[in-house]
Protein backbone atom coordinates (compact mmCIF):
# COMPACT_ATOMS: atom_id res chain seq x y z
CA UNK A 1 0.00 0.00 0.00
CA UNK A 2 1.33 3.41 -1.00
CA UNK A 3 -0.27 6.74 -0.11
CA UNK A 4 0.22 10.14 -1.74
CA UNK A 5 -1.14 13.34 -0.16
CA UNK A 6 -1.49 16.64 -2.00
CA UNK A 7 -2.97 19.96 -0.91
CA UNK A 8 -4.26 22.72 -3.18
CA UNK A 9 -5.99 26.06 -3.40
CA UNK A 10 -9.21 24.88 -5.05
CA UNK A 11 -11.57 22.16 -3.92
CA UNK A 12 -13.45 22.66 -7.19
CA UNK A 13 -10.56 21.34 -9.29
CA UNK A 14 -9.97 18.28 -7.14
CA UNK A 15 -13.67 17.49 -7.00
CA UNK A 16 -14.29 17.86 -10.74
CA UNK A 17 -11.13 15.93 -11.60
CA UNK A 18 -12.63 12.85 -9.95
CA UNK A 19 -16.16 13.47 -11.18
CA UNK A 20 -14.89 13.79 -14.75
CA UNK A 21 -13.27 10.41 -14.32
CA UNK A 22 -16.72 9.10 -13.36
CA UNK A 23 -18.20 10.61 -16.54
CA UNK A 24 -15.48 8.90 -18.59
CA UNK A 25 -16.49 5.57 -17.00
CA UNK A 26 -13.02 5.02 -15.57
CA UNK A 27 -13.99 5.74 -11.94
CA UNK A 28 -16.91 5.61 -9.55
CA UNK A 29 -17.77 7.26 -6.26
CA UNK A 30 -18.03 4.31 -3.86
CA UNK A 31 -18.61 6.10 -0.55
CA UNK A 32 -18.48 9.20 1.62
CA UNK A 33 -17.62 10.18 5.15
CA UNK A 34 -19.65 12.56 7.36
CA UNK A 35 -22.29 13.30 4.71
CA UNK A 36 -26.01 13.41 5.65
CA UNK A 37 -27.18 10.90 3.01
CA UNK A 38 -25.81 7.95 1.08
CA UNK A 39 -23.49 8.76 -1.78
CA UNK A 40 -25.68 7.09 -4.44
CA UNK A 41 -28.49 9.51 -3.57
CA UNK A 42 -26.40 12.69 -3.80
CA UNK A 43 -26.25 15.04 -6.75
CA UNK A 44 -23.03 16.84 -7.67
CA UNK A 45 -24.18 20.07 -6.00
CA UNK A 46 -24.78 18.30 -2.68
CA UNK A 47 -21.35 16.68 -2.75
CA UNK A 48 -19.54 19.94 -3.53
CA UNK A 49 -21.61 22.27 -1.31
CA UNK A 50 -20.81 20.17 1.74
CA UNK A 51 -17.17 21.18 1.28
CA UNK A 52 -17.86 24.80 0.36
CA UNK A 53 -20.09 25.49 3.39
CA UNK A 54 -17.46 24.26 5.82
CA UNK A 55 -14.70 26.20 4.06
CA UNK A 56 -16.66 29.41 4.65
CA UNK A 57 -15.90 29.00 8.37
CA UNK A 58 -12.31 30.06 7.74
CA UNK A 59 -11.67 31.90 4.51
CA UNK A 60 -8.10 32.72 5.56
CA UNK A 61 -7.02 29.15 4.79
CA UNK A 62 -5.79 29.32 1.19
CA UNK A 63 -4.49 25.79 0.66
CA UNK A 64 -7.70 24.18 1.78
CA UNK A 65 -8.21 21.17 -0.49
CA UNK A 66 -6.79 17.74 0.34
CA UNK A 67 -6.40 15.05 -2.33
CA UNK A 68 -5.16 11.60 -1.26
CA UNK A 69 -4.52 8.51 -3.36
CA UNK A 70 -4.17 5.06 -1.79
CA UNK A 71 -2.52 2.57 -4.12
CA UNK A 72 -2.37 -1.21 -3.87
CA UNK A 73 -0.16 -3.89 -5.34
CA UNK A 74 -1.29 -5.15 -8.80
CA UNK A 75 -1.96 -8.58 -7.25
CA UNK A 76 -4.61 -7.11 -4.91
CA UNK A 77 -8.24 -6.79 -5.98
CA UNK A 78 -10.52 -5.88 -3.08
CA UNK A 79 -14.25 -5.35 -2.84
CA UNK A 80 -15.77 -1.90 -2.48
CA UNK A 81 -16.65 -2.67 1.13
CA UNK A 82 -13.04 -3.46 2.03
CA UNK A 83 -11.77 -0.39 0.14
CA UNK A 84 -14.20 1.79 2.12
CA UNK A 85 -13.09 0.19 5.38
CA UNK A 86 -9.47 0.94 4.51
CA UNK A 87 -10.35 4.54 3.56
CA UNK A 88 -12.31 5.13 6.79
CA UNK A 89 -9.52 3.68 8.92
CA UNK A 90 -6.87 5.74 7.17
CA UNK A 91 -8.77 9.04 7.49
CA UNK A 92 -9.34 8.38 11.18
CA UNK A 93 -5.67 7.67 11.83
CA UNK A 94 -4.38 10.80 10.08
CA UNK A 95 -6.81 13.11 11.92
CA UNK A 96 -9.52 13.46 9.24
CA UNK A 97 -12.08 11.14 10.82
CA UNK A 98 -14.52 14.01 11.49
CA UNK A 99 -13.98 15.74 8.14
CA UNK A 100 -16.30 15.40 5.14
CA UNK A 101 -14.69 13.27 2.43
CA UNK A 102 -15.58 11.42 -0.76
CA UNK A 103 -14.02 8.14 -1.89
CA UNK A 104 -13.53 7.33 -5.61
CA UNK A 105 -12.34 4.04 -7.00
CA UNK A 106 -10.35 4.52 -10.25
CA UNK A 107 -10.01 1.90 -12.98
CA UNK A 108 -7.59 3.71 -15.32
CA UNK A 109 -4.34 1.94 -14.42
CA UNK A 110 -2.90 -1.53 -13.96
CA UNK A 111 -3.31 -1.55 -10.18
CA UNK A 112 -6.18 -0.98 -7.76
CA UNK A 113 -6.28 2.49 -6.20
CA UNK A 114 -8.72 4.91 -4.60
CA UNK A 115 -8.82 8.71 -4.35
CA UNK A 116 -10.02 10.57 -1.28
CA UNK A 117 -11.22 14.18 -1.56
CA UNK A 118 -11.50 16.34 1.55
CA UNK A 119 -10.75 19.74 3.13
CA UNK A 120 -8.56 20.79 6.06
CA UNK A 121 -10.95 23.29 7.69
CA UNK A 122 -12.73 21.74 10.68
CA UNK A 123 -16.29 22.27 11.93
CA UNK A 124 -15.12 24.88 14.45
CA UNK A 125 -13.29 26.83 11.75
CA UNK A 126 -9.79 25.79 12.82
CA UNK A 127 -7.28 24.51 10.34
CA UNK A 128 -5.79 21.02 10.39
CA UNK A 129 -2.02 21.27 10.38
CA UNK A 130 -0.63 19.59 7.25
CA UNK A 131 3.03 20.11 8.10
CA UNK A 132 4.92 16.78 7.85
CA UNK A 133 1.64 14.88 7.71
CA UNK A 134 3.22 12.26 5.47
CA UNK A 135 6.00 11.31 7.86
CA UNK A 136 4.29 11.93 11.19
CA UNK A 137 0.80 10.60 10.53
CA UNK A 138 0.40 8.95 7.14
CA UNK A 139 3.41 6.63 7.37
CA UNK A 140 2.47 5.12 10.78
CA UNK A 141 -1.15 4.80 9.59
CA UNK A 142 -0.05 2.98 6.45
CA UNK A 143 1.95 0.40 8.40
CA UNK A 144 -0.88 -0.25 10.86
CA UNK A 145 -3.43 -0.66 8.06
CA UNK A 146 -1.16 -3.03 6.14
CA UNK A 147 -0.94 -5.26 9.19
CA UNK A 148 -4.61 -5.08 10.17
CA UNK A 149 -6.06 -5.65 6.68
CA UNK A 150 -3.25 -8.04 5.64
CA UNK A 151 -2.24 -5.96 2.63
CA UNK A 152 0.87 -6.32 0.48
CA UNK A 153 3.47 -4.16 2.15
CA UNK A 154 5.17 -1.35 0.27
CA UNK A 155 8.47 -2.28 1.95
CA UNK A 156 9.98 -5.44 3.35
CA UNK A 157 8.17 -8.01 1.23
CA UNK A 158 9.42 -11.40 2.47
CA UNK A 159 9.48 -12.98 -0.95
CA UNK A 160 11.62 -10.18 -2.36
CA UNK A 161 13.84 -8.14 -0.04
CA UNK A 162 14.20 -5.45 -2.71
CA UNK A 163 10.46 -5.20 -3.34
CA UNK A 164 9.27 -1.66 -3.84
CA UNK A 165 5.76 -0.78 -4.95
CA UNK A 166 5.53 1.67 -7.85
CA UNK A 167 1.83 2.43 -8.00
CA UNK A 168 1.46 5.18 -10.54
CA UNK A 169 4.10 4.66 -13.20
CA UNK A 170 4.62 1.34 -14.92
CA UNK A 171 7.29 2.57 -17.35
CA UNK A 172 8.40 5.33 -19.66
CA UNK A 173 5.77 7.30 -21.55
CA UNK A 174 5.51 6.33 -25.20
CA UNK A 175 4.21 9.27 -27.22
CA UNK A 176 0.94 8.55 -29.01
CA UNK A 177 -0.04 5.47 -26.98
CA UNK A 178 -1.98 7.41 -24.35
CA UNK A 179 -3.36 10.93 -24.14
CA UNK A 180 -0.38 13.21 -23.42
CA UNK A 181 -1.85 15.23 -20.56
CA UNK A 182 -3.10 12.13 -18.80
CA UNK A 183 0.25 10.36 -19.15
CA UNK A 184 2.20 13.36 -17.81
CA UNK A 185 -0.28 13.74 -14.94
CA UNK A 186 0.34 10.15 -13.85
CA UNK A 187 4.09 10.78 -13.77
CA UNK A 188 3.74 14.06 -11.86
CA UNK A 189 1.41 12.46 -9.31
CA UNK A 190 4.11 9.97 -8.44
CA UNK A 191 7.23 12.12 -8.63
CA UNK A 192 6.38 15.60 -7.31
CA UNK A 193 5.45 14.57 -3.79
CA UNK A 194 7.44 11.35 -3.49
CA UNK A 195 10.95 12.43 -4.44
CA UNK A 196 13.22 14.94 -2.69
CA UNK A 197 14.73 17.37 -5.18
CA UNK A 198 16.24 20.80 -4.54
CA UNK A 199 16.37 22.28 -8.05
CA UNK A 200 14.78 21.99 -11.49
CA UNK A 201 17.70 19.97 -12.92
CA UNK A 202 17.38 17.50 -10.03
CA UNK A 203 13.63 17.18 -10.66
CA UNK A 204 14.22 16.67 -14.38
CA UNK A 205 16.73 13.95 -13.56
CA UNK A 206 13.79 11.97 -12.14
CA UNK A 207 11.22 13.00 -14.76
CA UNK A 208 13.53 12.01 -17.62
CA UNK A 209 13.45 8.43 -16.33
CA UNK A 210 9.82 8.46 -17.55
CA UNK A 211 10.35 10.55 -20.73
CA UNK A 212 9.01 13.78 -19.21
CA UNK A 213 10.70 17.20 -19.02
CA UNK A 214 9.81 20.33 -17.03
CA UNK A 215 10.86 23.08 -19.43
CA UNK A 216 11.22 26.74 -18.27
CA UNK A 217 12.34 27.85 -21.74
CA UNK A 218 15.53 29.55 -22.86
CA UNK A 219 16.95 32.31 -20.69
CA UNK A 220 16.05 34.98 -23.25
CA UNK A 221 12.51 33.68 -23.85
CA UNK A 222 9.34 35.37 -22.62
CA UNK A 223 8.30 32.25 -20.73
CA UNK A 224 11.57 32.14 -18.78
CA UNK A 225 11.41 35.83 -17.88
CA UNK A 226 7.78 35.44 -16.75
CA UNK A 227 8.72 32.34 -14.69
CA UNK A 228 6.50 30.12 -16.77
CA UNK A 229 6.81 26.35 -17.12
CA UNK A 230 5.76 23.72 -19.63
CA UNK A 231 5.84 19.96 -19.48
CA UNK A 232 7.00 17.98 -22.50
CA UNK A 233 7.11 14.34 -23.51
CA UNK A 234 10.52 13.07 -24.66
CA UNK A 235 11.29 10.36 -27.18
CA UNK A 236 13.68 7.51 -26.45
CA UNK A 237 16.61 9.72 -27.49
CA UNK A 238 15.68 12.40 -24.94
CA UNK A 239 14.35 14.83 -27.58
CA UNK A 240 11.04 16.71 -27.06
CA UNK A 241 8.14 15.39 -29.09
CA UNK A 242 4.54 16.56 -29.47
CA UNK A 243 2.93 19.73 -28.18
CA UNK A 244 4.09 21.05 -24.77
CA UNK A 245 1.47 21.56 -22.06
CA UNK A 246 1.42 24.56 -19.71
CA UNK A 247 1.85 23.76 -16.04
CA UNK A 248 -1.23 25.84 -15.18
CA UNK A 249 -3.42 23.49 -17.24
CA UNK A 250 -2.85 20.56 -14.88
CA UNK A 251 -5.36 20.30 -12.05
CA UNK A 252 -2.72 20.28 -9.31
CA UNK A 253 -0.94 23.36 -10.74
CA UNK A 254 2.67 22.06 -10.82
CA UNK A 255 3.94 25.54 -11.73
CA UNK A 256 7.44 26.89 -11.15
CA UNK A 257 6.18 28.71 -8.05
CA UNK A 258 4.89 25.42 -6.65
CA UNK A 259 8.18 23.70 -7.43
CA UNK A 260 10.25 26.46 -5.83
CA UNK A 261 8.33 25.89 -2.61
CA UNK A 262 9.20 22.20 -2.86
CA UNK A 263 12.87 23.05 -3.47
CA UNK A 264 12.91 24.92 -0.18
CA UNK A 265 11.03 22.33 1.87
CA UNK A 266 12.82 19.24 0.56
CA UNK A 267 15.60 18.12 2.86
CA UNK A 268 17.90 16.13 0.60
CA UNK A 269 21.05 16.56 2.67
CA UNK A 270 20.23 13.80 5.08
CA UNK A 271 23.46 12.12 6.11
CA UNK A 272 22.22 8.54 5.79
CA UNK A 273 20.74 9.15 2.32
CA UNK A 274 23.96 10.74 1.06
CA UNK A 275 26.10 8.00 2.62
CA UNK A 276 24.10 5.28 0.85
CA UNK A 277 24.81 6.73 -2.61
CA UNK A 278 28.48 7.45 -1.82
CA UNK A 279 29.00 3.92 -0.49
CA UNK A 280 27.41 2.41 -3.60
CA UNK A 281 29.78 4.39 -5.84
CA UNK A 282 32.86 3.59 -3.75
CA UNK A 283 32.03 -0.11 -3.65
CA UNK A 284 31.65 -0.14 -7.43
CA UNK A 285 35.22 1.12 -7.84
CA UNK A 286 36.51 -1.12 -5.08
CA UNK A 287 35.30 -4.33 -6.68
CA UNK A 288 36.97 -3.96 -10.06
CA UNK A 289 38.45 -1.67 -12.70
CA UNK A 290 35.38 -0.25 -14.43
CA UNK A 291 34.39 2.12 -17.19
CA UNK A 292 31.76 4.84 -16.87
CA UNK A 293 29.16 2.64 -18.58
CA UNK A 294 29.93 -0.24 -16.23
CA UNK A 295 29.55 2.09 -13.24
CA UNK A 296 26.07 3.05 -14.44
CA UNK A 297 25.03 -0.62 -14.69
CA UNK A 298 26.38 -1.45 -11.23
CA UNK A 299 24.52 1.47 -9.63
CA UNK A 300 21.30 0.47 -11.40
CA UNK A 301 21.40 -2.83 -9.53
CA UNK A 302 21.41 -0.79 -6.28
CA UNK A 303 18.34 1.17 -7.43
CA UNK A 304 20.35 4.26 -8.36
CA UNK A 305 20.06 5.86 -11.80
CA UNK A 306 22.92 8.00 -13.09
CA UNK A 307 21.81 10.93 -15.27
CA UNK A 308 24.38 12.64 -17.53
CA UNK A 309 24.26 16.38 -18.08
CA UNK A 310 25.94 17.36 -21.36
CA UNK A 311 26.43 20.65 -23.18
CA UNK A 312 25.51 21.42 -26.79
CA UNK A 313 28.76 19.83 -27.99
CA UNK A 314 27.94 16.61 -26.17
CA UNK A 315 30.61 17.03 -23.51
CA UNK A 316 29.76 15.72 -20.05
CA UNK A 317 29.76 18.50 -17.46
CA UNK A 318 27.59 17.09 -14.66
CA UNK A 319 26.18 13.94 -13.05
CA UNK A 320 22.98 13.51 -11.08
CA UNK A 321 22.21 10.43 -9.00
CA UNK A 322 18.57 9.39 -8.53
CA UNK A 323 18.12 6.97 -5.63
CA UNK A 324 14.76 5.25 -6.11
CA UNK A 325 15.05 3.53 -2.74
CA UNK A 326 15.25 6.66 -0.58
CA UNK A 327 13.52 8.86 -3.23
CA UNK A 328 16.42 11.31 -3.01
CA UNK A 329 18.14 13.15 -5.85
CA UNK A 330 21.74 14.40 -5.60
CA UNK A 331 24.04 16.29 -7.91
CA UNK A 332 27.51 14.79 -7.90
CA UNK A 333 29.01 17.94 -6.38
CA UNK A 334 26.56 17.69 -3.49
CA UNK A 335 28.08 14.36 -2.48
CA UNK A 336 31.62 15.73 -2.65
CA UNK A 337 34.31 16.63 -5.19
CA UNK A 338 35.29 13.03 -5.82
CA UNK A 339 31.74 12.22 -6.98
CA UNK A 340 31.46 15.04 -9.51
CA UNK A 341 31.47 14.36 -13.25
CA UNK A 342 35.14 15.30 -13.66
CA UNK A 343 36.31 13.20 -10.70
CA UNK A 344 34.25 10.16 -11.73
CA UNK A 345 35.68 10.32 -15.24
CA UNK A 346 39.19 10.51 -13.79
CA UNK A 347 38.52 7.56 -11.48
CA UNK A 348 37.26 5.50 -14.40
CA UNK A 349 40.29 6.57 -16.50
CA UNK A 350 42.61 5.69 -13.62
CA UNK A 351 41.06 2.24 -13.37
CA UNK A 352 41.49 1.73 -17.11
CA UNK A 353 45.11 2.95 -16.94
CA UNK A 354 45.82 0.51 -14.12
CA UNK A 355 44.54 -2.31 -16.29
CA UNK A 356 46.68 -1.11 -19.21
CA UNK A 357 49.76 -1.01 -16.97
CA UNK A 358 49.11 -4.60 -15.92
CA UNK A 359 48.90 -5.65 -19.57
CA UNK A 360 52.10 -3.71 -20.35
CA UNK A 361 53.94 -5.41 -17.48
CA UNK A 362 52.80 -8.80 -18.69
CA UNK A 363 53.99 -7.94 -22.17
CA UNK A 364 57.41 -6.86 -20.88
CA UNK A 365 57.81 -10.11 -19.00
CA UNK A 366 57.07 -12.05 -22.14
CA UNK A 367 59.93 -10.20 -23.92
CA UNK A 368 62.54 -10.65 -21.15
CA UNK A 369 65.98 -11.55 -22.56
CA UNK A 370 67.37 -14.88 -21.38
CA UNK A 371 71.09 -15.62 -21.33
CA UNK A 372 72.50 -18.96 -22.30
CA UNK A 373 75.96 -20.23 -21.44
CA UNK A 374 78.45 -19.95 -24.37
CA UNK A 375 78.95 -23.27 -26.11
CA UNK A 376 82.23 -25.11 -25.97
CA UNK A 377 83.33 -24.14 -29.49
CA UNK A 378 83.06 -20.42 -28.74
CA UNK A 379 84.93 -20.78 -25.46
CA UNK A 380 87.61 -22.86 -27.12
CA UNK A 381 88.10 -20.26 -29.83
CA UNK A 382 88.45 -17.45 -27.28
CA UNK A 383 90.65 -19.19 -24.74
CA UNK A 384 92.20 -22.08 -26.69
CA UNK A 385 94.15 -24.54 -24.56
CA UNK A 386 93.39 -22.77 -21.28
CA UNK A 387 89.70 -23.56 -21.75
CA UNK A 388 90.44 -27.15 -22.65
CA UNK A 389 92.58 -27.44 -19.51
CA UNK A 390 89.56 -26.25 -17.49
CA UNK A 391 91.41 -23.19 -16.25
CA UNK A 392 88.35 -20.99 -16.93
CA UNK A 393 85.58 -23.29 -15.87
CA UNK A 394 83.72 -23.06 -12.54
CA UNK A 395 82.52 -20.22 -10.36
CA UNK A 396 85.84 -20.08 -8.46
CA UNK A 397 87.81 -19.08 -11.54
CA UNK A 398 88.03 -15.71 -13.28
CA UNK A 399 85.92 -17.00 -16.19
CA UNK A 400 83.42 -18.44 -13.82
CA UNK A 401 83.20 -15.15 -11.95
CA UNK A 402 82.68 -13.32 -15.24
CA UNK A 403 79.91 -15.71 -16.19
CA UNK A 404 78.25 -15.29 -12.78
CA UNK A 405 78.41 -11.51 -13.14
CA UNK A 406 76.73 -11.65 -16.53
CA UNK A 407 73.90 -13.80 -15.28
CA UNK A 408 73.27 -11.94 -11.99
CA UNK A 409 70.81 -9.10 -11.58
CA UNK A 410 71.90 -5.56 -12.41
CA UNK A 411 74.17 -4.12 -9.72
CA UNK A 412 74.29 -0.62 -8.36
CA UNK A 413 75.75 2.02 -10.67
CA UNK A 414 78.46 2.98 -8.18
CA UNK A 415 79.68 -0.59 -7.66
CA UNK A 416 83.47 -1.00 -8.06
CA UNK A 417 85.30 -4.31 -7.94
CA UNK A 418 87.58 -4.77 -4.97
CA UNK A 419 90.68 -5.26 -7.10
CA UNK A 420 90.28 -1.80 -8.66
CA UNK A 421 89.69 0.09 -5.43
CA UNK A 422 92.51 2.38 -4.24
CA UNK A 423 94.23 1.19 -1.12
CA UNK A 424 94.02 3.47 1.87
CA UNK A 425 97.00 5.82 1.92
CA UNK A 426 99.39 5.55 4.82
CA UNK A 427 99.71 8.49 7.11
CA UNK A 428 102.89 10.47 6.94
CA UNK A 429 105.48 9.55 9.51
CA UNK A 430 104.33 5.97 9.75
CA UNK A 431 107.19 3.51 9.68
CA UNK A 432 107.17 0.45 7.54
CA UNK A 433 109.16 -1.33 10.22
CA UNK A 434 106.53 -0.76 12.90
UniProtKB/TrEMBL annotation:
Question: Which top-level group of life is the source organism from?
Answer: Bacteria
Pfam families noted in UniProt:
Relaxase (PF03432)
Describe the location of the MobA/VirD2-like nuclease domain by residue ranges.
Answer: 17-147
Protein name listed in UniProt: Relaxase/mobilization nuclease domain-containing protein
Amino acid sequence: MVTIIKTGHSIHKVFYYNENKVKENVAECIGAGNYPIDVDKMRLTIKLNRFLKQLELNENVKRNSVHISINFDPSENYSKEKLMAIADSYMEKIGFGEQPYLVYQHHDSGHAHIHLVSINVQRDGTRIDMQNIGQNRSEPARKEIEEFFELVKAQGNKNSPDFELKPIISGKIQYGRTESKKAITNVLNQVLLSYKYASLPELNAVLKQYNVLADPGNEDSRMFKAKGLMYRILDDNGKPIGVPIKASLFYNKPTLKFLEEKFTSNTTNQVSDIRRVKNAIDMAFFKAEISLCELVKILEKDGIDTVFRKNAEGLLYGLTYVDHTTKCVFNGSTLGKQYSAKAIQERCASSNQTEQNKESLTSEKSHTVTFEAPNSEIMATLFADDYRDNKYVGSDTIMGQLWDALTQSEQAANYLPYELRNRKKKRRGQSNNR
